[in-house]
Amino acid sequence: MTIEESDVRGVLRRVTDDLVGRPTLLDDVRRGGRRRLLRRRAVLAAVCAAVVAVPVGGALHLADDGTAVEVASPLFDEPTRGDLAGDEAYLRQVRQAWRQQARDAGFDGDDPHVDWAGDPHVVWAGETPAGPAAYVAQRAAVTHQVWQPAADRTIGYAAFVEPTADGPRVMTLEIVTDAADGNSSAVLLGPRRDVLVVRDAGHPVEFSPTFRYAADGRIERTFQPVAFRDGAAVLSVPPQRGRVTVALVRRPVSATTAVHIANAADVLFADRKASPQPRSVTYTLPGADRVWGDTPAAQVGRDVFATDALAAYVDHGGTHRAGGSPSLTVYGAAPDGRQLLLKTIQYDDDPARAIALLAHGGAPFQPVASGFIDWTAPLPVRLRLPDGQGALVVAEGAALSYRIGAGRWHDAGRGAALLPADATEVRVTAAGGTVTTVRVDS
Questions:
Q1: Cα–Cα distance between 149 and 112 in angstroms, integer?
Q2: What integer pLDDT is reported at residue 30 of this predicted model?
Q3: CA atoms of 28 and 10, how far apart (whole Å)
C-alpha cells in the first residue's frame, strides 16, 4: 500500500497552511546534491511530512494488510533518558502537549495515514540553559510506504519539545521509518537560539560552532567530538539569528552524514521571506565542444557534484540559505586539451565564490583556482589557471578584449573568455558603454 499524492497533500495542508513553497522546489531539491540549499521553511515542513526519516535501529514485522504487528525499537521501547526522566509532572505536560499538537494538526485518528498506536513515549527529557526540553516518539497504528527512500515504511512519528512561557511546545512532527538514515537529531533552543541539543542516536557526532572562509574561498571549520550524557548533549553556541553557523556531522564528513537541526529553517527564514532564486548564467567558450561534446551539463552532474571535486568549498554539516548572486557556469577547453569548468557557490549573504576545475576526459575534475566574486566590479571573475593554461575572466554582458604588454588589443568575445597565459590586461566594455581596463597579470 502506498500513500497517494492526495493523501499527502491533505496532511501537508493541515500542518503547513501558513507556509508557501516555490513552484520550483522539487527541481531545486533534485539539483541540490550540494548542501547549500534549505530555501524555505516549506522545505523542512514538506520533507517532514513526506520524506524525513529518523533511524530507529529496530525490527519491523508487517501483516499482509500492511499494519504493524511488532515494532522493536529503542526509540519507542527504551526507558526515558535525561535528568528529567523521573519528573512525572514534566513528562505529563510533555505528553499532553504532544496530544494537543496531534489534535491541532489533524493527527487525531480521522486520517488513516496518521493513526496513532499506544501512548506517546518521551525518549529524552532534560534541563537546558533555555529551560526543560524533550524528544517524543509515538508508533503509527498502520504502516505506509514513504516516497523516499524506496521501500521504507512509516512506523511512527517524532518531534522535539521546546520550552515556552506557556509550557512545553511540540515542534515539527517527523515521520519515523523502519530502515532509513534520519535527520533532525538536533534542535536550537532559547530566544536567541544559543542552546543546541543533540540527541544521542547511537553514533559518534562531531560539532563545529563557527565557520569561516580562507582567502581562496575554501571552507575552514574546526570540529570537536560531541560528549553525550544520558541520551543527549546540551551545548552552548553563538546566537543563531538569521543564519546558522554551527554544524553537526557524523564521521566521515560528507553531504550524507550531516546531522540536521530541526528548526534550522525557522532561523534562516525568521522573516518568512523566500530565499532569492539565483539567476542562472552559462557561457560556453569557443572550442569547448572539442572536449565536452554536446552535453557538458550531464558530465558536470556526474563528475563534479556527485564526487568530492568541490568538497573543500562545500560546508558539509552546515545549513544555509542560497545567496542571491547569479549562479555562474562556464564550459571551456584548456590549451592542453583538458576540460575547463567554472562554478560558483554562495551561502546566505556572503560573497559568492568562483571555482575553476580541470579534467582530462573521463578523469575526475580537480579544482585548480578559486576566489571570491565582487559582482559590482568591472571584472567580477579573474582566475589565473596553473601550468600556463591561461586566465579565465567573466563580466556578464560585457565585450572583452586583451593585450600582451603594450601590444595591440585582441577581441575575446563577450561575457567570458579564457585569455592566453601571457595576457597582461583585459578591456571590459560594459553594456552601457563604460570601458575599464583591468590588469590580469597580478
A1: 21
A2: 31
A3: 23
Give the orientation angle of helix 5-15 with respect to helix 41-50, to 10 degrees. Answer: 130
Amino acid, res. 24: T
pLDDT band with cut points at 50, 70 and 90 for residue 187: very high
Contact between 122 and 93 (Cβ < 8 Å):
no
C-alpha distance from residue 424 to each of 398, 402, 414 (Å): 18, 7, 18
Which H/E stretch holds residue 44?
helix 41-50
pLDDT at 76 over 50: yes
pTM of structure: 0.78
Domain ranges in the chain are 5-268, 280-439
**Quick one: pLDDT at residue 36?**
29
Contacts of 197 by beta carbon, 8 Å cutoff, 6+ apart: 126, 128, 133, 160, 186, 187, 189, 232, 233, 234, 235
Cell numbers given for 30? 533534485
Residue 153 exposed, middle or buried by CB count within 10 Å (0-12, 13-18, 19+):
buried
DSSP lists the bridge partners of residue 70 as 61
CA neighbor of 347 nearest in space, from 377, 317, 391: 317
Task: Average the pLDDT over 20-32 and give the result.
Answer: 32
What 157-160 contacts at long range (C-beta under 8 Å, 24+ apart), as own/partner pairs, is 157/107, 157/114, 157/116, 158/54, 158/75, 158/123, 159/98, 159/101, 159/135, 159/262, 160/133, 160/134, 160/135, 160/136, 160/184, 160/187, 160/197, 160/262, 160/263
Handedness of CA 411, 416, 418, 419 (dihedral sign): positive
Considering only CA atoms, which of 209, 220, 210, 217 is closest in space to residue 351?
217
Helix residue spans in 184-288 (DSSP H): 264-268
For β-strands 435-439 and 425-429, DSSP reports them as: antiparallel
Residue 414, SS3 per DSSP = strand
Q: What are the tens digits of pLDDT across the range 140-186?
A: 877 676 655 556 778 888 999 999 999 999 998 888 887 655 547 99
239 close to 229: Cβ distance less than 8 angstroms: no
Distance between CA 303 and CA 314 in Å, rounded? 16
Question: Vertex 172, ends 258 and 142: CA angle to 5°?
Answer: 100
- Asked if pLDDT for residue 80 goes beyond 60, the answer is yes
With a cut of 90, say whether residue 366 has pLDDT above it. Answer: yes
Q: Is the pLDDT of residue 288 over 80?
A: yes
Cβ(247)–Cβ(264) below 8 Å: no
R_g over Cα of the chain: 26
